[in-house]
Design goal:
The chain contains three helices and five strands, in the order H-H-E-E-E-E-E-H. The chain is an alpha+beta fold. It has one domain.
Length: 125
């Protein structure tokens, strides 16, 4: 007599198939999670590109190292370059909007290319 009944074997088989069906990269938002917003320091325009390992990152069109990470000001609805790490810690207000000096900059904002939001939070469209 086998150690598992027929219904137990069927349950294990269905569970395994269900697990395999859940594997894979079918989520359309997965590609968006591999991109971020930068400011091109040559033009001061926002650019959406793949997440880089080091900064400044290479521009996808020019190949020049002109891309710096960007943060969004919800008040003036504009992307700004992130200050260098040493400036953030020693300059008061470095994480604030350079225009009004009081609004905190955030990584969450509309992508400049109109493809959605820079960060996808659960429950947010």
């Amino acid at each position: 007599m086998s150690a598992f009944s027929r219904s137990q074997r069927r349950f294990v088989l269905v569970s395994f198939i269900g697990f395999l069906a859940g594997c894979g990269d079918s989520d359309p938002d997965a590609k968006a999670l591999k991109k971020m917003v930068y400011i091109d320091t040559a033009t001061m325009q926002p650019v959406v590109h793949d997440i880089a390992v080091s900064f400044p990152a290479a521009h996808p069109t020019t190949g020049k190292l002109t891309l710096r990470p960007a943060l969004y000001c919800p008040n003036c609805q504009k992307w700004y370059p992130v200050p260098p790490p040493n400036e953030i810690t020693r300059v008061p207000g470095a994480g604030k909007c350079p225009k009004d000096k009081k609004t905190s900059l955030t990584a969450d904002g509309p992508w400049p290319d109109g493809s959605g939001s820079a960060t996808k939070s659960p429950g947010k469209p």
